[in-house]
Amino acid sequence: MADRKPRRRLVHAAYGAAIGFVIALAAGRSGLIAWLAEMPVEDMASTALAVLLLSLGLFALIAASSSTLYRRMAENYQEGDPLDAGVLRYLRMNGAALLLGAALLLVPPLAVRFGFTGDAAIPVAIGIAALLALQTWLSARIRRGSDELNRAALAEASIASFWLLQFGLFGWAALARLGLVANVSLWTLMTISGAIYLAVSIVVALRRGMFA
User: Which parts pass through the membrane (predicted)?
Assistant: First the structure.
């Protein structure tokens, strides 16, 4: 049987391009892009990262919504392979964790944009704390339910991200202390750390053949 992976990748790319075009067109006509462009650069960056996490999370949930969809969408699924219900459950949990991560990135800048600062931001902060606790609990469940390959990938991504961030943050802090670069906010650092972890996780997964 011919390898269906290139065909699946082309189909996924076509779907993604079409959906992205429709979303971009709707956002432009509704004025959403102009509204977002008025945000500070760090908020635009965190919003862009949140949209990426949101897209990945929705893709995972859609793929895990039925075994038929999973067989069609998963690149590493071979025709005739048995499909354990635990695979779909694991994918759903990952999708939910990605959506929670997107929400945590979106809520703070949007709250500020809508004027929730000072005392008015206390309910928002409580909601963020609840979301963070839920994501932490879900991440722990995902790790416990992972097989050896996924656990090794998670560990490798965490270690690589830690050293990259330690080197990068120390270098920037040293240069800022010397007055050679500007100081950056904690929100910017958080956004950068999230982007680096996501990028490293994808690279590790590709290198281990998890998306091959």
Answer: 12-36, 48-70, 91-114, 120-140, 152-174, 186-206
The CA distance from 68 to 84, in Å, is 13
DSSP 8-state symbol, 145: T
Domain span at residue 179 reads 147-212
Q: How far is CA 24 from CA 27, 44, 144, 159, in A?
A: 5, 15, 38, 36
Confirm whether 9 is domain-assigned: no
The residue behind tokens 């919003």 is 47
pLDDT digits (tens, 9 = 90+) for 3-32: 555 666 666 666 667 776 677 777 677 767
Phi and psi of 167, rounded to 5°?
A: -65, -45
pLDDT 10s digits, 76-107: 555 555 566 677 888 889 999 999 999 999 99
Give me the count of residues in the chain: 212
